[in-house]
Design brief:
The chain has 144 residues and is mainly beta. Helix content is 14%, strand content 38%. The chain has three helices and eight strands. It has helices at 12-19, 66-69, 78-85; strands at residues 24-27, 33-38, 46-51, 57-62, 90-94, 99-108, 112-120, 126-133. The strands form two sheets. The protein has a four-stranded antiparallel β-sheet with strand order 1-2-3-4, with helices on one face. A four-stranded antiparallel β-sheet has the order 5-6-7-8, with helices on one face. The longest helix has 8 residues, at 12-19. It is globular. The relative contact order is 0.14.
């Protein structure tokens, strides 16, 4: 929608008008709440809105970007990584490497369609990340 969200002024009803119903909500120790609005599996954005305890908008953030990717640290659990980045697109297992990989679609520099991949060991602990271009097949009917 065309609703503008203003930190310190907008309320939960404004957030719902803009994004719809959240997929996930978490209450934080200070009484504030986070609401998650994933674009995954087909979208390239995952939005997290934080509301102060009294229901006023504190922040709106896009989770699929470099600052959030770089917040992942070796040893984090799968749940901690999912909480940091929001809903993922796909999971893959690579038994020969003893790896479990969770992937998110995102736009690199606003234009390049990519996957961010979080690699986990057999104990479910984050090891490292990788980025791969998303393969988009050329539509044979688009050619003259």
């Amino acid at each position: 929608g065309c609703v503008s969200l203003i930190p310190g002024a907008s309320r939960e009803s404004d957030v719902i008008a803009k994004f719809g119903q959240p997929e996930n909500q978490r209450r934080l120790p200070d009484g504030s709440r986070t609401l998650d609005f994933p674009g995954a599996p087909m979208g390239y954005e995952n939005w997290r809105v934080t509301l102060a305890a009294e229901g006023v908008l504190r922040s709106v953030e896009q989770l699929l970007n470099e600052p959030h990717f770089s917040a992942l640290k070796p040893g984090m659990s799968i749940d901690e990584v999912k909480r940091t980045l929001g809903r993922h697109v796909e999971t893959s297992d690579f038994p020969a490497l003893a790896e479990h990989v969770i992937s998110w679609r995102y736009m690199d520099f606003g234009a390049k369609q990519m996957f961010f991949n979080a690699h986990f060991d057999s104990a479910g602990r984050f090891k490292y990340s990788s980025k791969t271009p998303e393969f988009i097949p050329e539509n044979e009917y688009d050619s003259p």
